[in-house]
Amino acid sequence: MARQERAIRTRESILEAMASLFVEVGYEAATIAALLERTGLTRGALYFHFPTKEAMARGVLARAVTREGVRPQKHKLQEWVDLGLLLAHRLPREPMLRAAVQLSVDPKARSLFGTRWPDWIDVGEDLLVEAGKRGELLPHAVPAEIARLAVGAWTGVQLVTEVLPENRDLSEEISRLYRLILPAVARPGILAELDLSPCRGERLLGPAADAGAPVADGTPA
């Protein structure tokens, strides 16, 4: 068991180190030699876990789609919003997530192993379908369309925010995105009860949430 736990920790450390390299220099320029220097591993130890750089990239992408921090709420639309706000809070702080986005927009990397955008769309669509069944959406709102366009908009906002000279906060920008989207798809009574605060992602992952305390659902938008 101890050996297995060490192997899991080593595998995780390799992925984290390679993710940092992908963020810093891109997929093409990230080399095995640089990874070995960063981790202190031998080639044999590295190849025991990952035989190629492509395998490591796939490992990074596999961690991209997560509902960590999303808790059951009164409204499924709140859970859908929480999904995006949590990612906005975590992405600047977690190289693994940043690397996954970078790999997804890199033409060379994308041609080799695709992206996880379809999976994000599916996760969002599932929540939106449930929201529709509960009467939270306007009659014209189509969950599949909302999920697809929201993922595209979220990604675009993240990429633009990252290069703007004003050092804008991603959580604030994503909060603004939801404030633009939701009036067009959510019933007014539901919209008034949604918490779209840019601080919500941080609260969901904060000490109170870790301790099991509920995170309020109902702060007016």
Automatic annotation (TrEMBL):
NCBIfam families in the cross-refs: ScbR_bind_reg
UniProt keyword Transcription regulation present: yes
Name of the protein: ScbR family autoregulator-binding transcription factor
Alphabetic keyword roster: DNA-binding, Transcription, Transcription regulation
DNA-binding region positions on the chain: 31-50
Organism the protein comes from: Streptomyces thermogriseus
Tagged with keyword Ligase: no
PROSITE patterns: HTH_TETR_1 (PS01081), HTH_TETR_2 (PS50977)
Segments forming domain HTH tetR-type: 8-68
Classification via InterPro entries: ArpA-like, DNA-bd_HTH_TetR-type_CS, Homeodomain-like_sf, HTH_TetR, Tet_transcr_reg_TetR-rel_C_sf
Pfam family, one: TetR_N
